[in-house]
Amino acid sequence: MSSFRSEPFLWIHLAGIAALPILLQIAWIGLAVGDPLPGYWLELIFLLVIAIAPISWMQWYKPFDIFSLLFVAQRPELLTPEQLKILSLFKRPKHRFITVLGTVLMIAGLWKIYQIAPIATPAAAFLPQWRIIGLLIASLAFLASHLFLQVPLSVLGVLFTKNEQWEKTEPIPVSNIAQSFTLLGIRVRKILPTLVS
């Protein structure tokens, strides 16, 4: 019997961490556009509300369903018992600790990037120098970067599950998936080809 760690969706979403540096760089350039508002804390609150809070809330209450890619999601009723057990692992208390850790890392990253944003002014010179445009670019980039941090972190939490814990894990009922997980995209019968060992 193959290990649950060989599930392709786990590795695909773990690889998403590679997008994090690019997205943070886009956010950095966005924050270099225009002159900061007189009350810098207003900009930070805006970024926290738009970019940090939604992903933290999602991962805390309704974690991202990893059996999806881009704009398609595998229909819950077609998941295998092993995949349903994997989803159960995302609902452990450990997952919420990981969510808090990811949120703290993103807030620290936001604060640091905000401080060094003026260094990126030459790179942002090609954009219209309206602060609102820069904030919108930064907020969208931070939102995406937060997602591409939280999901791989939660996947790592699953991959480091001990075999004994895996054996004790019960599959999540299919009827609970829609209310327990965030499913994005069109529901399809299959996304990845079946791997034959």
Automatic annotation (TrEMBL):
Keyword Manganese annotated: no
Membrane-spanning ranges: 12-34, 40-61, 97-120, 132-160
InterPro entries on file: LCTMP-like (IPR049610)
Keyword Transit peptide set for record: no
Domain of life: Bacteria
Keywords: Membrane, Transmembrane, Transmembrane helix
Protein name, UniProt field: Low-complexity tail membrane protein
